[in-house]
Amino acid sequence: MADEKQQNFVEDLVDNAWSIRIPAFKPEDNIQGLIEESCFATVFPKYREKYLKEVWPLVRQCLAEYCLKAELNLIEGSMTVKTTRKTWDPYIIIKARDMIKLMARSVPFEQSKRVLQDEIGCDIIKIGSLVRKKEKFIKRRQRLIGPNGATLKSVELLTDCYVLVQGNTVAALGPYKGLQHVRDIVLDTMNNVHPIYNVKALMIKRELMKDTQLAHEDWSRFLPKFKNKNVSKRQQPKLKKCKNDYSPFPPQQLESKIDKKLASGEYFLNKEQEYQRKQHERMAKQAETVQKQKEKRQAGFIPPAEENFSLVRTYADTDERKLNIKAFKSKVAKSILNLNT
User: Contact 106/166 with Cβ under 8 angstroms?
Assistant: First the structure.
């Protein structure tokens, strides 16, 4: 008997578990219903109150198909879903909880009600704590959305999921396999990996899945590889000490004051000679400073150089002395015409 069960289990194995269709859970599968009542509640922000008030009759109608109750409390700002004695699906209350969570996070009712289907799930990714600086967080979140929402739309088309980026969270809604890809793309984007790399990888995988020859091979050689080119921006010092070439020998010992005096011969002078030498140096230095101060003082009394202006014009070139007869005649003719007129 055990061998037959094992054989049947082996026959039921499939290569791709994602291809298995989940059988529908019908009321005939659970005739007795649920014994205990389950209840889930979630709060919503003030700006969602108007929309939820308009849509709530549709929410009640949608949940009534699964024998669930829905309550909207505008005073506390909360939504509640409950099971009844007629509810036959024990997991539908979890699906209803996810639906009101998505509606509280600005997902429209038309999209959030899809969670009630068996093959559709949701994922709320928290991205607020992944980046420390607020400026970087805003830039990377905008990078995920893309120009005019183009990047987000491409992610939705490739994963068959509805993605909404708002505040510190990303709400995703769609098939379970697509939700895995969405989570990977969001986390990589917040870790400074551009989403275009993951989008390209998904496009390449989609094309490779169509080829039967490459179905059982490694696809890593076809996928784009991300190289981090960021260099650490550590503040460099203004003055850098250049390291000299390595030498196994120790540096030459510096000369002491006595060695310098011995080399110049000052060591052998007596006190009077040393005093006279210092006096002579002091007098020479003093005379030099006196001379500099005198020149500086006399500089204000020196008159500036004047240019020689002469009334008679001096021509540097002989060609300037020559009179242009044609030009002179034309001037005279013009002046005569002006007088006649």
Answer: yes
What's the rounded Cα separation, in Å, for the pair 81 and 186? 30
Cα torsion for 23, 29, 33, 34, to the nearest 10°?
Answer: -50
Q: What does 179-223 look like in DSSP terms, one character per residue?
A: HHHHHHHHHHHHTT--HHHHHHHHHHHHHHHH-STTTTS--TTTS
**Angle 300-305-311 from CA coordinates, rounded to 5°:** 145
Low-confidence ranges of the chain (pLDDT < 70): 1-16, 18, 215, 226-233, 307-323, 341
The pLDDT assigned to 60 comes to: 93
Bridge partner list, 122: 173
Give the pLDDT score at 230.
61
Closest by CA position to 63, among listed 100, 35, 101: 100
Which pLDDT score, from 0 to 100, does residue 4 have? 53
What CA–CA distance (Å, rounded) separates 140 from 120? 28
- Please choose, from the candidates 111, 96, 124, 91, the residue with its C-alpha nearest in 3D space to the C-alpha of residue 40: 96
Distance between CA atoms of 222 and 211, rounded to whole angstroms?
Answer: 13
Q: Say what the pLDDT of residue 162 is.
A: 94
Helix (H) / strand (E) element for 337: namely helix 325-340
Q: Return the biggest CA–CA distance within the chain.
A: 141
Indicate the pTM of the whole model. Answer: 0.60
pLDDT of residue 319: 55
SS3 sequence, 109-174?
HHHHHHHHCCCCEEEEEECCCCCCCHHHHHHHHHHHHCHHHHHHHHHHHHHCCEEEEECCEEEEEE
Cβ pair 114, 160 in contact under 8 A: no
What is the CB neighbour count within 10 angstroms for residue 30? 13
Residue 219: the pLDDT is: 72
Torsion of CA 166, 170, 173, 177, to 10 degrees: 160
